[in-house]
Design the sequence.
């Protein structure tokens, strides 16, 4: 196993303005995070992003900064394996893991299909859906579950009518519904064009019953964080797992990937609203894991400014700490 010697370990802080973005029950107007830059004794450089997502990550940015500084003290000047995985805070694990990958692998931009993300009221998402389809996007994701069932049904039906039968829809309920409410939603929208509903139920133990009632395929996202891939038995109807490495960490991400491959379940690599640097790393993972599956990486459009464009960092938007 090859070793790399860390000769430089730099940490930068960013604070980027966003278009108003609803994450769970909160509105985000800025995105904050860290960029780490590693250099080895051969002069190679690797970059990673550490950006806990407020309301979803279990760690705070302050906690991630503290742990990253400790890790710098631990690794600087040391030889470590190329496959080193940090078993600490999950966002730090993702950032350090991708920075180390960047040291030893030649970065080649790869094109992967992406699922277009729709948010807003009915008229807003219909307009955005039409624009994305014109750009060649053939899979769209709609957030449901935060409004009334009637509003959710109207949004999905309107998008179906606007984009045509050749476009697949992914719906994300963020564990909002009871079994009865989820079943009523499926009856109202029908299964045509729906690839799956992500996290339809508050109670994940009723997922098999949901599929038995509706025959609607579903995907898991948040639920995966509390499960052990080694002991996991996929319920009937599970067609995809949505993996967000910033929230899962590198070790658990790859354990879920291995399980999905064994069980022939679709793997969808997805963003936690990282900057362009994190999106680039996620696209690389998606290319190597599931290159034909549309990835959930349509999030950069919420950034008014970005630290990473066209393969280069904008150091004017970074502050060394």
Sequence:
């Amino acid at each position: 196993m090859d070793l790399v010697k860390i000769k430089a370990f730099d940490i930068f802080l960013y604070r980027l303005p966003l278009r108003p973005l609803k994450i769970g029950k909160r509105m985000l107007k800025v995105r904050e995070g860290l960029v780490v830059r590693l250099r080895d004794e051969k002069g190679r450089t690797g970059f990673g992003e550490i950006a806990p997502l407020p309301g979803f990550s279990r760690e705070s940015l302050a906690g991630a900064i503290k742990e990253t500084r400790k890790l710098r003290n631990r690794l600087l000047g040391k030889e470590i394996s190329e496959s080193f995985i940090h078993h600490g805070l999950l966002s730090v694990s993702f950032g350090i893991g991708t920075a180390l990958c960047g040291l030893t692998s030649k970065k080649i931009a790869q094109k992967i299909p992406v699922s277009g993300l729709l948010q807003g009221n009915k008229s807003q998402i219909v307009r955005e859906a039409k624009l994305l389809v014109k750009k060649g996007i053939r899979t769209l994701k709609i957030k449901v579950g935060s409004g009334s069932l009637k509003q959710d049904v109207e949004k999905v039906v309107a998008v179906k009518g606007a984009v045509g039968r050749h476009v697949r829809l992914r719906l994300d309920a963020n564990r909002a519904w009871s079994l009865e409410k989820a079943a009523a939603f499926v009856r109202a929208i029908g299964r045509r064009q729906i690839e799956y509903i992500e996290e339809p139920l508050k109670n994940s133990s009723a997922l098999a019953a949901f599929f038995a009632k509706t025959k609607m395929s579903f995907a898991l996202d948040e639920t995966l964080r509390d499960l052990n891939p080694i002991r996991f038995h996929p319920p009937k109807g599970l067609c995809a797992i949505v993996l967000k490495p910033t929230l899962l960490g590198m070790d658990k991400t790859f354990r879920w990937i291995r399980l999905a491959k064994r069980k022939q379940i679709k793997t969808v690599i997805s963003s936690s609203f990282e900057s362009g640097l994190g999106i680039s790393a996620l696209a690389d993972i998606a290319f190597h894991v599931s290159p034909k599956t549309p990835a959930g990486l349509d999030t950069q459009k919420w950034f008014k400014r970005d630290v990473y464009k066209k393969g280069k960092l904008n150091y004017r938007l970074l502050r060394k700490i």
Q: What stands out?
A: The mean pLDDT is 94.
